[in-house]
Amino acid sequence: MPEGVQLVKASGPAEYVTEGNLILFKPLPSIAAGQSATYRVFVVGNVDGNLVFRARVTSAASPEALTFEELTRFYGDVR
Q1: From residue 5, how far is each of 8, 20, 49, 73 by CA, in Å?
Q2: Domain that holds residue 46
Q3: Cβ pair 13, 37 in contact under 8 A
Q4: In the predicted model, is pLDDT for residue 78 greater than 60?
Q5: How many domains are contained in the chain?
Q6: C-alpha–C-alpha distance, residues 4 and 10, integer Å
């Protein structure tokens, strides 16, 4: 997770642990062809601005990890 956000909760088909600013989901034994697995991470922003979130997926069947990035805009407190 980028600096400036706090984890609220995470969910998915596997348990997770946190290490610093990382959320690590435990490996799945397998995913059959045509199936998918959905993971969700909920955060709250503590700063204004654009923050980049990165997800990395690894597999015993592939030597290279897949990396995904998404830019998310956080706005100040509007109360």
Answers
A1: 9, 12, 11, 11
A2: 5-74
A3: yes
A4: no
A5: 1
A6: 17
